[in-house]
Structures are given as structure tokens and as C-alpha cells.
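Worked example

This section walks through a single chain of length 240. The input is the sequence exactly as stored; nothing has been trimmed or padded.
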Amino acid sequence: MTDDTTRLYPDLVTAGGLGNALQAALAGLGSGLRVSGLDPAVNFMVYARVESGPRLSQVFIAARERLFLFDFWSRGVNLAQGQTPDLAGVAGAIDRWITSGCTTSELVSGFDFVTVEPSAAAYESGGEVEHRWRDYLANMGDRFPELVACVRAASRRRELRRLFPFTSHVTFCFSRCTGYPFTRDTPHVRPRQDGQYEVLGYDGRVLGRGDADAAARLVADHLPPDCGPAVPGTAEDVSP
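Given that input, the structure is written out below as C-alpha cells.
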């Protein structure tokens, strides 16, 4: 703990950490939410977490000014961010988000220090899979140009287009859920230096090599049985 922390956050020092102070602020609102992981033996000065059901928020503190930085997650997706020097405001926004089931637009209408992620509307409307594919098709060239041909080929196959695409380093992957952590039980593709692609199973076994169309076909041919459309939630919410 630095001198700046003591000076900027005397209320947290008095409470014995951010978690304790946030718990007191929630109680002051009459909220039944509990801060996760409170332990009197550990001083959680810079981090706290509140979670209930599919929603959670994480809170951090800034180092050089009094400012609380926090986020709003639902079903494994970060949909909004907030920042304010007022801990009571933090508690109010978190309580509203987690207990009311409100949308991000409803949250912002009550708390002007909250900003919504650009993709939030797609997730809240159930259109996150198509939103991600369109984003990849439009912008993959700026991120991983070596994957562009593979993304295009995969997008033309219905059985792959309904899965949630994501990248891990320079590997192109497919998930059966739309929140993090993603499922890891489908094949993934990585580019080769010769311009072709290598397809690997979830266990790392090489399934084959070829151009973009061949790679997309190999992934589709080795999907798990009954591999339906990607569903909202995390890997924990998806049946094996």
C-alpha cells in the first residue's frame, strides 16, 4: 500500500480494504449482495468482486487519483464499464446491474458514469454470433491478415457460421458458447508459413492441412456430434 493510496482512499484503509468498504456501501443501500472472497487475513485494497447468477462486476482503484474503475459482465461477456470517485455510486450501479436484470441502456439512464461497450446491443438482442462474424470479415485483415482467407472460407459453411468465432494468438477457433471462457472441444486452425493452414483437434492432434477451403471443410467434418448453434453463456453452461 503506497502513501498515495492512504491519502486518496482513507475510507478503504479504515474499512480494512476495498472489499470491506464496498460491502458496507452495499449494505447501506439495503442490498443483499455479498462481495466475494472477503477474508480478514488478506487486505483486498485494490480489487473487489460481486457476483450473483450470470452477472458480475469487478472493481479496481486508480493509483494517482481517487477513482473507482469497474465493469459489468453478463453470461461471460463484459458489456459496460464505469468510473467514479464515489463508492456509494459504485455500489448503487452494481446493485442495479446484478439484482434487477436491467439492460445496459437502462443502467446508463440511471448512472451517467457508465459507458456501454459497442457490442453490447448485439449480445443483449441475441445477435452476438452474427455480429462477431461480420466484425471478423470486415476487420480481420487489420489484426491477423494471414487468417483472412480462412475466416472467409469458414463463414461460407453453415455449420461453422453458427458457432462463435474467436482468436487465440494467431489461431482461429470456434466456440459453442458466446461468453468467456469459451468451449475448447472443436477443431481450430492455424496458418502455415507456406500460405496454407493446419487444422488441429481439441487435443492438439493434427487433422490435416490445406488451403482455406480445405481447412474449413476439415473443421466442419470434425465437429462434435450434435454441435448446434452457439448459446449465450460460458463453457460451464454448455453440455459436454
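What to look for: Strands lie at 47-52, 55-61, 68-74, 77-84, 114-116, 164-168, 171-175, 188-191, 197-200, 206-210.
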